[in-house]
Amino acid sequence: MTVAPAPSRVLIPRSIAAVVLAVGLASGVVIPVGSAAAHGGELREREYWLEDYGITEAWEDTKGAGVTVAVIDSGVDGSHPDLQGVVTGGTDVSGAGAPDGQRGIGEVPEHGTLVASLIAGRGHEPEEPAPSPSVSPSGTASPSATPSGSAPPPSSAEAEASAPPSPSPSPAESGEAEDSEKPEESAVKAAGRGSDGVVGVAPESELLAVSLWIGGENTGANPAGVSIDDQIPDAVRWAVDNGASVINMSLGSTSPTWPESWDEAFLYAEQNDVVIVAAAGNRAGGSVQVGAPATMPGVLAVGGLDAEGAASRESSSEGISIGIAAPAENLVGALPGGLYASKWSGTSGAAPLVSGVAALIRAKYPDLTAPQVINRIIMTARDAGIPGQDTIYGHGILDAAAAVNADLTVPEERLLGAGGVVSMAQYIETYRRGDVPPPPPPEPTPSEEPLPDIPEPTVPAAAERASATTSLPAFIVFGFGGLILCIVLGGTYQVIRVYRGGGAETDGNSS
Length: 511
Description:
Blueprint: E1 4-5, H1 17-23, E2 32-33, H2 35-38, H3 42-45, H4 49-52, H5 55-58, E3 68-73, E4 87-92, H6 111-120, E5 122-124, H7 156-162, H8 171-181, H9 187-190, E6 196-199, E7 206-211, H10 228-241, E8 246-249, E9 251-252, H11 263-271, E10 275-279, E11 300-305, E12 322-327, E13 331-335, E14 339-344, H12 347-364, H13 370-379, H14 400-405, H15 424-431, H16 458-510
Parallel strand pairs: 3-7, 3-8, 4-7, 8-10, 10-11, 11-12
Antiparallel strand pairs: 1-9, 2-14, 5-6, 13-14
């Protein structure tokens, strides 16, 4: 099985368009930006999903504190300014990465950092500008892309141009002007640890970085020799054992089926009450239909929306297993080395937004089971497309405010399920009978024993009786008919005899 990051076509210094096409996975666009583009609240303001999908409203009650989300991906750069202190543990299951999972590996090494920032990015304080402009000895401007993402200081000419033409107003006048002109700070700008950088959906949650090797045309197969069929179950088990209550998997394949080696690990997560969220895949990457692990029972599969809230044509796929739809176009996110992606598309970005909402729900309602957390997300979704559940929007469009705050009774039974299979336990029992002993046949009850003999007595007895009844009337008819005929003949003979005898007597008397 070929697995790859489900959602991102990455236009970075190297091109991997052919790789994305070859692995048949979702694609998107990632463009690293320099410090000028990342400075101030610009990136924060471009996180349209935070307000448009009710996330800032949900923050009034919770920001995900106390919840641990595992990011099973290419590795997470925990030293990024927006992720410092967020990654509290990690591992590598490929044998080719860093032991703590914090080094990007595989075909798209920056992918995991992008995903992590959308879940739990915390932003950072902007760097203080230098007191005076500085110029390099050669007289050329310094590079715009800096690890901190801060803006370069203004030149002396710019400073002169921005200087006020008239004397400064008095302190009182200045204060009045500030009060009247200062806009109210938005919840998005106020979130996190500062106005710079990216803020995730659950900025107070913690992350586990689980790196695996997803190969491609440029990098080839895993140099450590561990197959993806073994990496995936190892990653899921490690995440469960190390305290994750939500697992994000922004990866997938072009096949709706999965190897049996995955069964027990996903069953283990189910038995330990862990929510698993997976990307549905993208048409632009060759995934016309949803691929595993998003097709696995109990996994919440996420489809993609464009910036206007309609189903994305390129950055999503289609299938009965899609449970919810979330933004998948024009996304921003963190890149390793303190940089940012200013444009990113794909369900790899939609999945972490839903994982973040799952973290908010788990923080506010710690007693809810994993199926109930998923139930809250799909029960409060805004219906779109064909009324009811469909293969494009699933149960509808993500509404974080309703998912977190709505006053509703959440059923314990699983509402998520494709084809009637709602859990891994049910799937294994139904489709992996070779591995699971079949239940013993029920013992027959006494009432069932005589049933096979019921029709037997009627067959020969009825045939013989029918034969007797049909021959009796024929004997009577023919018997009585013969008797009547004899009587008639005898009577006729007697009449003729009498007649002849009487005639003879008459003739004798007359002579």
